[in-house]
Please model this.
Amino acid sequence: MPSRTFPTKNSSEKQKNEGGTRLKSRLAGKTLVRHRWIRRIYQFLIVYTVGVGGLLLLKQILGLSNYVIPAIPLILETAGEVGRGFLGDVLDTLWITFLGQIISTILAFTVGIAGRRSSWIGSFIKMTAYNIQAYPIVALAPIIFILLGDGFVPRLLIASMICYFPLLLSVLGVMSVPVKDIEHFYIVTGRMRWQLEVKIRAFENLSKLTTVITGSATLAMAGAIVAEFIAADAGIGYSIRIALYQSDLAKILVALFMIGIVISIYQGLLETLSERIKMAWAISDD
Model:
């Protein structure tokens, strides 16, 4: 008859302490996640204030007029006039950014998983990605606008392209490196499948992947703004182009403020989502 093992007092206390430690770490993680996007806004406000302060200092040193560098009252007045409209333009650009980031992430993981092997197909995919990445995507923007016009599709395409290649290179780097300690067991036992291989490598590099995806939001936003600035008829990039033609630096500063606030909140939300995914995956692993 098999012997039964009963929990001792020490083992019960150990389990209780481990459970309390895990609970504390989860609560601390949730608190950190909750304030992450607020910290993003604080960081942007500091950078923006320093930048505007530098412009005002240059204005005083060189004795420039408000036409060249606007004073603070003029900036605030302009913000009251165009702030609401610019906020709508930024949200329009953010929608392009969101869609472009989703498309580029799906494509990057699809191509990265297909090119993870050391076969000639994988080598060809890597070589193509590296060569295309070396070519400036912005240089292709006029061709895209000539072929597709100045509507929604060209903006989305350029935002996706600028965001796509850095994501692809990161995914290729993660998926091409085997986790030998773990994969060896499944290979020896004959249980290794490509889905399991991808899952193992993604789990072991989850922090790197989530960081890259979060950081790609800035690239997607920059791509959308560049597309709008070149030839689009909507979005905050289009509004900045009009302000540039009018030599209205106050409007440009207001537009930059709106862009910074919105992208800070968006990136904070992405970081919050990535942290929740990592915590949920860690809990399921426990």
Q: What stands out?
A: The first helix runs from residue 9 to 34. The chain has one domain: 20-285.
